[in-house]
Known about the structure:
Blueprint: E1 7-12, H1 16-26, E2 31-37, H2 41-50, E3 59-60, H3 63-69, E4 74-77, H4 84-93, E5 97-101, H5 108-121, E6 125-128, H6 135-146, E7 152-160, H7 163-166, H8 175-178, H9 186-198, E8 202-210, E9 219-226, E10 231-237, E11 244-251, E12 254-259, E13 262-267, E14 270-274, H10 283-291, H11 301-319, E15 325-326
Parallel strand pairs: 1-2, 1-4, 2-3, 4-5, 5-6, 7-10
Antiparallel strand pairs: 7-11, 8-9, 8-15, 9-10, 11-12, 12-13, 13-14
Amino acid sequence: MTSEAKIRVGFIGSGGNARHHMGQMLGIADVEIVALTDPNPVMLDAARRQHPALANVPTFSDHHRMLSEIEADAVLISTPHTTHKEQILGSLDAGLHVLCEKPLVCTVADAREVIAKVESSGRIGLLSYQRHYQPEFRYIRSRIASGDLGAVTFVNALQCQNWKVGTKGSWRQDPDLSGGGQLNDSGSHLLDIILWITGLAVEKVSAFIDNCGTPVDINSALTIGFVGGAQGNISVVGDAPDWHEDVTIWCEKGILFMRNGKLQVSDPSGKCTFDSLRGGSSPDRNFVDVIRGRAEIQSPFTCGLRVIELTEAAWRSAAHGGAPVAV
Length: 327
């Protein structure tokens, strides 16, 4: 691929989330979408209707055929969670860069395997944690890293949504495809952003989980001890009538509040509310810029490893009545 050539991207998965990424990629001038893959023809038809520019793009029902028949530089994977590992490894074997939707994979062992494969392949692996690109979270991360607020002492985070009802009858409540419930799905974003903005490492977790009559976790309560002594509580409530997300970080000299996308900071100079911050990007844009050599990866696969380490430990703790489990 020359510097002038467009980056050729194939899609593995053509559902609603993938179609959002298609729109993002179509808005980047030096990208060409060269293939759409989905075992369900209804999803392929929906992608072409939503994005008429893709009307003549080749389609496949099987990603193995797509990888062997289409000349591409990169793939974007947006499929049921337990299929990610095999699709990532196959794409790397084909010499392609990989942008994967969250969660990366569903076990710590699988995360280590795909990360090792990325490192040995020389290809780029980027995980679609979009909060890394949101200016408010980037501000919080930089403020904590600057040290002017002192060390982080306590973290409290809540995510609630009508996940139980909203995913009923879908693959998301099938453990063979989802690998878990809300904690491993939208809750993955919450765990990731806490670890990313604070820079903290988890030492141990105690968890209580309620499946609420489903095959997967719906409501999860995690109490965390971080390396260095900071503490934290994380609540993921999937049996709720509405969406709400709240992240609060206490530091020695201030507090950072992030409530439903609105940032407030309390520090020695007073209290300030940020109605909006400029800047920001997206995983799709960062992926292209990294391939071009214009940027560094902002959401690497290693973030997925840290999240599944915490998630897997929480599942083990809940299975043993909330007993603390080392991470």
